[in-house]
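Possible regression after last week's pipeline update?

I re-ran a chain I had predicted before the update to compare outputs. Posting the input and the new output here so someone can diff against the archived version. Not blocking, just want to make sure nothing changed silently.
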Amino acid sequence: MWAIVKNSQLIEISNGNKPITVGDVVHPKDVFKHWTKSQLKEIGIYEFISGTQPNSRFETQGAISYVVDDDAGTVTETIAKNNKNINDVNEVDENGDPLLDEYGDQVVTKGLKTIYKEQIKQQATSLLAPTDWMVVRKAEDSTKSIPSAVTTYRASVRTKADEICTAIDNCDTLDKLKALFETTYNDDGSVNVLATMQTLPDDNDIKDYKR
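New output (post-update):
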């Protein structure tokens, strides 16, 4: 990326894939490939240093600012990041009173803990769904059995989902919540500790029973 600078002010950001106009001169896009950084700097084309984007899982984007360094021939972008709330928020109106919906109920913005617990429960439901038919069949016809592999698998899904949701509930800071998403690796690249959020069991042992 490149920045067009005039009088120490950022004018335009370019990815270098089209001609660029500097003053009254139109330069072909080839200048970005064939000119040196010093040559580009002389006509006001500086190296653009992109800022780090917020992690949309945990952050929202705030204000964007730019610092022009005429000596170095660079423009550095900084993107402010705002942490999302981990807990639910009861919304209020301009007077500070509870904000109510059309049914008179408190308007609540879900926090990350609620959002991610709901995701885990949805994942668990999806994992159980392919073998639900066996549970229904057993309820309707007690002579039909559920294979132990299926019973064990379904119990493990429910247990692990509960464990993950408890781990989420126990997070009182955003950093602790972030840690639940982190997998650690050994020196050889193999997994050391799998992220808590990824520990729901797989269905390899019960594939033949899925519908």
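Follow-up from reviewer: compared with the archived run. The chain has a mean pLDDT of 94. Marking as no regression found.
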